[in-house]
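Question (not urgent): is this output format expected?
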Amino acid sequence: MGSLVHVKEATIVTPSEPTPNRVLSLSALDSQLFLRFTIEYLLVYKAHPGLDPRATTARVKAALAKALVPYYPLAGRVRAKPDGSGTGLEVVCRAQGVLFIEAGSDHNVNEFEKAPRFVTQWRKLLSFHVADVLKGAPPMVVQLTWLKDGNAALGVGINHCLCDGIGSAEFLNSFAELACTSQTKLAEFKFKPIPVWDRHLLNPAPFKPSRNNYNNSLSHPEFNRVPDLCGFLARFSNERLVPTSFIFNKTCLNELKKVAFSTSRLSESNYSSFEVLSAHIWRSWARALNLPSNQILKLLFSINVRDRIKPSPPSGYYGNAFVLGCAQTSVKDLTEKGLGYATMLVKRAKERVDSEFVKSVVESVSHSRASPDSVGVLILSQWSRLGLEKVDLGMGKPVHVGPICCDRYCLLLPVFNQTDAVKAMVAVPTTAAQRYEHLLRSFCI
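Got this back:
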């Protein structure tokens, strides 16, 4: 059973000042089929002694209303474009508002130091889950929950079609900064960066046909289908998933780099922490699942393209500005060829992404509704570099940053007061959990 969460109040918060009444188009990247879900963040805070929950809740609500003025599309409603294409989305902006929930819970702050016991243990810390944003639900939900020990948890759901991780983190930091700003200084508050819509920049219209033949399916393995040789999807659907989390400190990351270098070709001179860690997680996951040697596996991960395309989106662009990097190989090669081989695959996947590649992705998702498959796939997302660890609502920096539900998608998370450390959180099938955790720790003992 999950812990008890009692909703005290649920209200609609609208922008604190008049905002434009208009319909805004989302970009081709925003409108992708696989982004029509809600990103759900969980930030946990240790409250200062003497903190007044009622005053804090009022301050957070007021800050949310203020933040929604320049970010007014987040208070709109998403719908399919009426052109009948079925691919494009738009936002009807009428200051309809976002859902704000205040709740109490019998959770305590120490529970969040380790992985939840089951996937949905923390589900009610964001009580309202938006399964389909196209049915008229608010695209953003914010829940402030007071824990039984006097501390607090902030649950935030933002539909992915409106913004990516970088964009949502920029919004949350502005919202938090407003919550810490005194009433007398609110009029002088400056949003940094100033939010920018400009979604047309990531539509196919401004792009000329790509010089390189990136449009064929061989060039976009992230959208290819591979055969399911082992009941992969059924296993993840039918078997209970066990949440896991493990912290990799700087020493451990350096050890992984040494192992990757020692098992690489001499031409490879430098690997990033992300490349070696994602490769190590991928290999540990594959080995623990005990899959057939000829099953094709993919590691999909998001690559920010703000600095990889011309022209670059302006500072403050909070729409989806990422594409999927794809490392692909067989179970046999991934598990037998060593960490250096897997790290090289991740590095090569990153290096493929340039302006022409992004243009090709935009064309593919616009015209063929290309979307990634789930067979043999581990999706990894790097939340540790978004700035979520800085979101201070007046209670200090969060002591825990993570998802509402720990699921089959692997998240790299920031670690409180350890800037060089990363927490890896993912849920794996019960039969693989113990071996996965053992393999993950194997270089870090």
